[in-house]
Amino acid sequence: MLQEIAPSATLFAASVLVVLFGDxxxxxxxxxxxxxxxxxxxxxxxxESRCLECHGGEEVKxxxxxxxxxxxxxxGDRGPxxxxxxxxxxxxxxxxxxxxxxxxxxxxxxxxxAEMALLVRWVLAGAPWPEGSSGTLVEAPHSEEAxxxxxxxxDDWWAYLPLTRPEVPVSSDVVWNVHPIDAFVKSRLERAxxxxxxxxxxxxxxxxxxxxxxxxxxxPEELEAFLQDIEEFGFGEAWxxxxxxxxxxxxxxxxxxxxxLDLVRYAETNGYERDGTKKNIWRYRDxxxxxxxxxxxxxxxxxxxxxxxxxxxxxxxxxAEETEALLATGYFxxxxxxxxxxxxxxxxxxxxxxxxDTTGQIFLGTTVGCARxxxxxxxxxxxxxxxxxxxxxxxxxSYGGGNFGxxxxxxxxxxxxxxxxxxxxxxxxxxxxxxxxxxxxxxxALALGVTQPREEDGESAILVADARAETGAALWRYHLGxxxxxxxxxxxxxxxxxxxxGGFGRSNxxxxxxxxxxxxxxxxxxxxxxxxxxxRTAVLSLHHDEDTLVFLNGQPIxxxxxxxxxxxxxxxxDEARSAFVVGSNVLAVVCRQTGGGQYIDAGLRxxxxxxxxxxxxxxxxxSTGAAPTNPDARRARELLDRRTxxxxxxxxxxxxxxxxxxxxxxxxxxxVLLRGSVHAPGKEVAPDIxxxxxxGESEPYDLLPEPGEKTGSRRLALARWxxxxxxxxxxxxxxxxxxxxxxxRGLCRSPGDFGRLGFEPxxxxxxxxxxxxxxxxxxxxxxxxxxxxxxxxxxxxxxxxRVAREADPGNDLYWRYDPRRLTAEEYRDGVLKTxxxxxxxxxxxxVYPPMEAEVLATASRPNQAWxxxxxxxxxxxxxxxxxxxxxxxxxxxxxxxxxxDLPCPVRxxxxxxxxALVTLNGDFCQDAADRFAERLRRERADLGGQxxxxxxxxLGRVPDSREVxxxxxxxxxxxxxxxxxxxAALRLFCLGLxxxxxxxWVD
Amino acid sequence: MTSANPHFCRxxxxxxxWQTANGFGAVALTxxxxxxxxxxxxxxxxxxSPNPMGARPGGAARRAKAKNVIFLFxxxxxxxxxxxxxxxDLYALDGKTIDxxxxxRQGKRRGGRIVGPKWRFRxxxxxxKWVSDLFPYLGRCVDDIAFLHSMYAESPIHGxxxxxxxxxxxxxxxxxxxxxxxxxxxxxxxxxxxxVVMLDETGGPINGAKNWTSGYMPASLQGVQVRSExxxxxxxxxxxxxxxxxxxxxxxxxxxxxxxxxVARSANPELEARIAQYELAYRMQSAAPEAVELSGxxxxxxxxxxxxxxxxxxxxxxxxxxxxxxxxxVRFIQLYAGGGHNDDNxxxxxxxxxxxxxxxxxxxxxxxxxxxxxxxxxxxEETLVVWGGxxxxxxxxxxxxxxxxDHNSWGxxxxxxxxxxxxxxxxxxxxxLGAKAVEDRFHVKRLHATILHLLGLDPNxxxxxxxxxxxxxxxxxxxxxxxxxxx
Lengths: 1003, 487
Description:
- The complex is a heterodimer of chains A (1003) and B (487).
- Chain A is built from 38 helices and 18 strands.
- Chain A has 1003 residues and is of the alpha+beta class.
- In chain A, β9 and β10 form a beta hairpin.
- In chain A, α11 packs antiparallel against α12 and α34 (923-939) crosses α35.
- The relative contact order of chain A is 0.11.
- Chain B has helices at residues 6-21, 30-33, 37-41, 52-55, 136-139, 158-167, 177-185, 244-263, 269-292, 299-304, 310-327, 352-376, 444-454, and strands spanning 68-73, 97-98, 102-104, 107-109, 112-113, 121-124, 129-132, 145-152, 195-198, 224-225, 332-336, 383-388, 392-397, 405-408, 412-417, 425-427, 429-430, 437-439, 442-443, 464-466, 469-471.
- In chain B, β17 (429-430) and β18 form a beta hairpin.
- In chain B, α8 runs antiparallel to α9 (269-292).
- Chain B is globular, with a radius of gyration of 24 Å.
């Protein structure tokens, strides 16, 4: 190349100069150029900002490295870039001149005039490049700005010190010396000369404990029982029993699971243009809830998430424990994922960095992400350390398996059954329960006059004939058992598969028209058809027993679970139809079967669906809408809901879960990425933990798998370090979170940042005491809840004395319990709980409470933006509401549920008028208030009783007679002066309750 | 640089928090968040607490030129060579295959068939600025406009490019421009949200709410949808059964109950703040509909905006609404021209003539009217109007046939007017084909820096502490305003 351009190089250099200076005389006159070579600092600035991204690392574009004098002089594949004999003919000038599309640098765009002039002057001056450190550009420029962090073998920052059990102080008050937590808190208050608040009353404590542990308000019955227990057994015993009861509640995991989901940035879609759904990712959410309910030790909780796949013994059937461990690795699939990135290589690096940053922050309380582009400015994390941490994860498969588009990568999912339990059904149980419901439904259907006629639609052309067709069923290629990846794509060669006519299955299956026997557990089908033009309409016909997935040219177009007794027709939408191509098309179907009858057949035609996918169940559902008040219709609706929900329940039968997997047995080398750019790889690093975090004789963690082993154990090694030698950090971070979620703020106020940019703990010894206790109690979180809630500190009132308030307005020293506003989820769940409509089922696929049309209109595909759940499902707890990154419930958004793209260690409670609009005028609250009024009228006959009941339910305390009288008078006035009926007035009273500060705040 | 010294930084932030918790003045955010907001940041200070220093007009004390911003988002990406970037030699190349590297949704290509500009250009104004026949009305406004012909963005794909233009980053989860502006300046009108987004009738842009998210900032800083027809703000209107005197009575009762509750809890000032929010919400019920009520506008004004014409009525109404919101102190207003997918926005992959003809046709007159109207009311000086999409389009055809152009983030045109921007100028340029910005290339960050600068904010000083970093809209490397366009 150089030889080729050399002849014209002189001419070219001249042209660059003309281009540069032709009409910009004030910039630099050609005559001045050689007299004023730029300073090295100026040159360095341009090289670093414009060249180093691609030419800064070890493996660089064109082997050309601009990292020090020698690499620069050596040049790249095409030889030196500066021609010492004829400087003006240097290839560097040619490249930046942007004359040749083959060699125009930088590729992202031409240098600006000033930059170009500078480089030209520099090259013409002989391109002087200093030797030694000032001429070494591998260090990021940012390190110049900050004083280089002092990295010590043992850093003396509080969070990095070895964990020892601090001596428990003795306060002057013997009552406060019983519990170590109290001794710490009280001694600190004494040093400041402050008095703690008195203890809160039982009613306040019941409400506080109930929300803290379950996220739900106490019921009047629970209140009564608690007060009675106090009378009978004394406060201590009653409190003990209360805490035990709440910890044993299955709702404990839902409440504390939500804390964890904030940290791991849990969402069920990928974000960006398509915001595609993360398949069955709710199984990770369920794993969190289940683990917390079972009091899985925190160290195991960490191990499973970071390395559950590496805990699995490769041989034989998965044990229940191994299945759980695999489900935990859904952790790695929660982040945003751009299926169409501008820079694919960088996107893969970003995906990995997202995992490393999140892991560092949530498990270690360290903002490791700051060291991605340069050494951490405050904490002892070098850029090398960052990539050593990255190396633990770099063999993970990417969400897209290295590809982009809407398909999951290889190894992303694994078929896992849920462990049997009260909420998990075996296939036989499921079938039995569904059939039970259907039997009853058939009777109701008869009563409603719903039968099963079928009308045919005339205008249509058959593309793939199902077995009902007069012309005979289509011929398919089929394959039993597991199929290779991309078996459903157009490029796949299925000629080795067997051939058979549809449908496939056993003849005893209802509605089956048998073409080919199929008795195995799984079948894959493919058939081809040709299109001359793209169809404007298309209908998929399907009869399945059981779970079925249908693909058109590799794109999933339909998913159905359970079994049917007849064909159904599905009108394909725009998105599904976009998979059609002119020419050869492939329709592919996979069906899985667990027991009983089995059958699969599919067909494809143009035209309109017969009644649009209406079988008798669906028509039944419609008819219930037409006559909503008819008792039969109401019953039908309930039964339909129950049927759908039974089908959706977790099952022991294996089905897809998103999991971690490794790309192969030999991880790719991990390089330091200069400035975080994948295009500028620096030196290679091995997996290791930051030197400053090593307390003992740490082994390096270069743990390659044995030959033939499927995965390495790098992540497992890191996780083991976290809960072993590194527990000084891991335990401190978790102990602080436990305190934070009980007391409103962490002992260290920056729970995601224990480094120097965070806050120092207000009570460092207490924090260490808790961390040590956590480890000593075998990492049991429930043991810690008991320990924290047994303290007087937890039971203090939220009002305190004036002296303390003036001296310590931020409650740094805990002279009182900090009152807090309910979270968005607690508010919604509390509303549903008090009006008696909360559906308390656990687990399973996420639900879609109604979303206002105005909000749907903000989506780019308003009609496809949100699902529809039955009334029962829509009233499930908030943790089960589908988390869609581009569209969230206004109630959640307004009440500060965090954006799920980045970890949220602490929520911001805001206070804005739009919150009042939502809780006053929003459909959810209006409707909930109506249900509340209905409930009160159902449960109490007289207005006074209704008001009293309403107050107890909503506020968790027994109102005095004056308060009841006041509200009765209010309702009476509404009736009298505003001409409202009994129920209408009571509804407004209920709506008022949902807007009371007392409802929204926990003292 | 003080932020480089962690000790100084930490101490300062914490001291400030405690100082400001007592007798905190009129710094931005307080109006929306209640008097004790900063004290609450103690709870939220996991390193996510905003730096109150950054919340003030940062760095050098400068007077703001602009008070408000109207961002006219031409979603989908208008073609520069068919709108404002006149390439007179391109017409003759129509149909010819040319080696010109491009990067769009079809990936990187080395060249392709040129699609010549499909509209004539003519010179307008004293500046003699060449504008295509797509914009006969806007043409008359060029003397108030500064054209940026050399914009470039980091991605030629809608999803990430929208995030790039709205939030400064390709990676999802960062606050949007309007959030930054309101974080920095607060809002003078407590009866209306400070950050308003108006969407197209066909739907929102892709990414949905991510385009107006407050990211890691408080939720109160996110954009609020305002609709130009019907109830302007979600849940603003009380249900039928809670209107008029009844509603007042209801709120009074609620207030008295809430006040009784607060008596014994004087140590929790947020209770009072929340009581006040109900009164604010009540006032919003009249303030917001008043703001969007166009019946008081003169016939001439309505005609000016094209509200009387079916083609321009929808966007005209939004532009007029934007002016009314500016008059009422709303800081940041974003209008989407185009929504949903494909030809519902400027994404002209198929028939360029039809697509751009449609979208220009429905926006040209309203936008020109907005500039004219703002000017005649003396509002243009303090209102910055920004026009542009998430990227531009290629000079070559996307497919073997037809006029459709693929995305192009290597070079495109945006423009600004009012708010301290020099009128009648054009800065930067693309190459002779309009494919790539070559002269005075401006990254999207430069546009953001210019907007913040004109509002009196220091783009490199406006920071929000999150995840161990002083986060900035313009990124850690920072960006300078585009000086050439500053008046």
